[in-house]
């Protein structure tokens, strides 16, 4: 259509496609949304620290570098102090951010892929397929999430990939139910009927017609999923079931637990890191919910 | 001329009940056939049955739907997908909801083209702009990138029509395409559809309950009542002299535009009773509401009998009357 645009008598300002304008509206709505912006800023800060960890703190965070239980500020070289083994708490927090974010992301992706596949299939086709998938979903939901993760990790080995899979496997039923509900209502809409009448196949209708409409709640759910995955991973590490080769916020809390009354900063600092990161993800989720809601920006 | 689509003894039912009880009709290439009847008479189900998009639970139980040498009632799902949107397309009643709200209309039309024709993305986009222009959308290049909510109801129905005719179908099924639109827009949209029918040489199956629409835009009319065909006739003959008592009742119940026939000066005729009263009767479904019913009506459903060229009626009384006239003429 580029060639024909110049032929149109309308002024150039009108012939520009509206699409960038729509995107622009989304961006503006995002910038105006305080909870989204705060969440994004905190999350970005955590991500930057995670990425720069090897530069900020060269060397292994598990190394004993100084006297044990230095309080924050006691030694300017270790601004956040050292733990009971003399490991640098600041380095541990930075490396822990990598573990938390990566585990959260990997587990969320695994949970999303399984959940969307199951939910979309069941919701769209209905009938016995749906029945089987709903029963399967319920089967997973009857087992408490955290217990399921512990069982899977106990059967396997406490390595990062196994833990990510375990959290993802425990998290997908929630996504599946959300996606199924979306698909069940959307498959009855006229535009899906129209799509069938145009000869589109089921996968095409699922992916190209229904998915865009179902995407907003899925994106919002992703941030919560990631937050929960980070919490679950921290819980696992706290119970000493995390990957022993990785410095994680949860394992730092677990190590500091014995000194809770005297050196409480050893649990408070990684605890605050977890709380802030999870809070930022929840803020992002809430903010995206407002921005992505097509009815919010049209008033 | 061989018919484009021929329906033979089509029976459609839900598990509990039969809705369409064995109907026969055909559509010739390039003509507009109107399917009329009140709500619940099975006209929409019939139309959806033709392209096998029946609601969940409903199924074709018997009969054939012959289209271009294929029986659509038994075609494979893949064959049906290739026919839908390319050879037969559907225009739904409600243009407000029939377009995907999150995709630009240009993309939606382009997708139809790319689904059924080996065409590049750029070529599809050019075709879409032509199609939008064809259905009377101003500034098609700009509107290509608009979302459905940027359009009015009439404009959206134009977009739906553009999608329906994108692949030059042989048959367009329009299921009450203007019910959701106001009257002035209705005329524009139907004129557009009629113009495209001539221009592209396609046939239209127009489902409606509006006899004014039938009179103005259809070539032939098929009246359905309670899942059966009551009368089939060319539009001229139908409006001049409807033969089935139900069809006469329908015409009597419509408001004419003549001054003296206005409802303020003349009481509107009505058909007593409701369609529901036909349930479970062995005979003619219209018997209980029919002013001319005779005992013979209650025995079995009347067959569709020819009473004139291209004019068939399913009525015992009317068939006897025609037979008597014939006998008188020939005796």
From TrEMBL, chain B:
<keyword id="KW-0547">Nucleotide-binding</keyword>
<feature type="domain" description="ABC transporter">
    <location>
        <begin position="5"/>
        <end position="251"/>
    </location>
</feature>
<dbReference type="InterPro" id="IPR027417">
    <property type="entry name" value="P-loop_NTPase"/>
</dbReference>
<dbReference type="Pfam" id="PF08352">
    <property type="entry name" value="oligo_HPY"/>
</dbReference>
<dbReference type="InterPro" id="IPR050388">
    <property type="entry name" value="ABC_Ni/Peptide_Import"/>
</dbReference>
<keyword id="KW-0472">Membrane</keyword>
<dbReference type="InterPro" id="IPR013563">
    <property type="entry name" value="Oligopep_ABC_C"/>
</dbReference>
<keyword id="KW-0813">Transport</keyword>
<keyword id="KW-1003">Cell membrane</keyword>
<keyword id="KW-0067">ATP-binding</keyword>
<protein>
    <submittedName>
        <fullName>ABC transporter ATP-binding protein</fullName>
    </submittedName>
</protein>
<comment type="similarity">
    <text>Belongs to the ABC transporter superfamily.</text>
</comment>
<dbReference type="GO" id="GO:0005524">
    <property type="term" value="F:ATP binding"/>
</dbReference>
<dbReference type="InterPro" id="IPR017871">
    <property type="entry name" value="ABC_transporter-like_CS"/>
</dbReference>
<dbReference type="InterPro" id="IPR003439">
    <property type="entry name" value="ABC_transporter-like_ATP-bd"/>
</dbReference>
<dbReference type="Pfam" id="PF00005">
    <property type="entry name" value="ABC_tran"/>
</dbReference>
<dbReference type="InterPro" id="IPR003593">
    <property type="entry name" value="AAA+_ATPase"/>
</dbReference>
């Amino acid at each position: 259509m580029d060639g024909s645009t110049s032929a149109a008598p309308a002024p150039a300002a009108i012939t520009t496609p509206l699409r960038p304008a729509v995107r622009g509206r989304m961006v503006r709505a995002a910038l105006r949304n305080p909870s989204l912006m705060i969440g994004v800023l905190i999350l970005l800060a955590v991500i930057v620290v995670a990425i720069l960890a090897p530069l900020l703190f060269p060397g292994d965070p598990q190394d004993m570098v100084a006297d044990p239980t230095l309080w924050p500020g006691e030694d300017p070289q270790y601004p956040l102090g050292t733990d009971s083994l003399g490991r640098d708490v600041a380095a541990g927090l930075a490396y822990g951010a990598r573990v938390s974010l990566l585990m959260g992301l990997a587990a969320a992706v695994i949970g999303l892929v399984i959940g969307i596949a199951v939910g979309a299939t069941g919701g769209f086709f209905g009938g016995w397929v749906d029945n089987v998938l709903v029963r399967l979903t319920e089967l997973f939901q009857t087992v408490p999430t955290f217990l399921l993760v512990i069982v899977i990790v106990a059967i396997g080995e406490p390595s990062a990939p196994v833990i990510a899979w375990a959290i993802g496997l425990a998290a997908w039923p929630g996504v599946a139910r959300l996606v199924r509900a979306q698909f069940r209502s959307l498959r009855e809409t006229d535009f899906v009927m129209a799509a069938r009448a145009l000869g589109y196949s089921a996968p095409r209708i699922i992916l190209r017609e229904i998915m865009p409409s179902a995407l907003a709640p899925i994106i919002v759910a992703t941030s919560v999923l990631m937050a929960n995955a980070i919490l679950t991973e921290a819980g696992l590490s706290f119970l000493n079931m995390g990957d022993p080769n990785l410095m994680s916020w949860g394992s730092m809390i677990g190590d500091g637990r014995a000194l809770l009354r005297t050196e409480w900063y050893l649990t408070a600092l990684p605890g605050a890191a977890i709380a802030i990161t999870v809070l930022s993800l929840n803020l992002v989720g809430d903010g995206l919910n407002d921005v992505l809601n097509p009815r919010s920006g049209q008033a | 001329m061989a018919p484009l689509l021929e329906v033979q003894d089509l029976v459609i039912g839900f598990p509990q009940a039969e809705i369409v009880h064995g109907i026969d009709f055909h559509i010739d290439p390039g003509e507009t056939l109107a399917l009329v009847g009140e709500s619940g008479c099975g006209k929409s189900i019939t139309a959806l049955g033709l392209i096998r998009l029946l609601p969940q639970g409903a199924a074709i139980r018997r009969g054939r739907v012959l289209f271009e040498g294929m029986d659509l009632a038994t075609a494979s799902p893949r064959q049906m997908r290739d026919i839908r949107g390319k050879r037969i397309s559907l225009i739904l009643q409600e243009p407000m909801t029939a377009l995907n709200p999150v995709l630009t209309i240009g993309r939606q039309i382009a997708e139809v083209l790319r689904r059924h024709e080996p065409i590049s993305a750029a070529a599809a986009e050019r075709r879409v702009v032509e199609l939008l222009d064809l259905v009377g959308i101003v500034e098609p290049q700009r509107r290509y990138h608009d979302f459905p909510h940027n359009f009015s109801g009439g404009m959206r129905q134009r977009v739906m029509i553009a999608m329906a005719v994108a692949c030059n179908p042989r048959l367009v099924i329009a299921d009450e395409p203007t019910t959701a639109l106001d009257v002035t827009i209705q005329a524009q949209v139907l004129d557009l559809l009629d113009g495209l029918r001539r221009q592209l040489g396609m046939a239209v199956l127009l489902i409606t309950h509006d006899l004014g629409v039938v009179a103005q835009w259809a070539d032939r009319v098929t009246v359905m009542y309670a899942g059966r065909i009551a009368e089939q006739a060319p539009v001229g003959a139908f409006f001049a002299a409807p033969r089935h008592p139900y069809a006469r009742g329908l015409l009597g119940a419509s408001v004419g535009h003549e001054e003296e026939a206005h409802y303020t000066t003349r009481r509107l005729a009505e058909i007593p009773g409701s369609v529901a009263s036909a349930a479970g009767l062995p005979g003619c479904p219209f018997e209980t509401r029919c002013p001319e019913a005779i005992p013979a009506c209650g025995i079995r459903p009347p067959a569709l009998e020819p009473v004139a060229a291209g004019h068939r009626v399913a009525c015992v009384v009317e068939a006897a009357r025609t037979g008597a006239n014939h006998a008188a003429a020939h005796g």
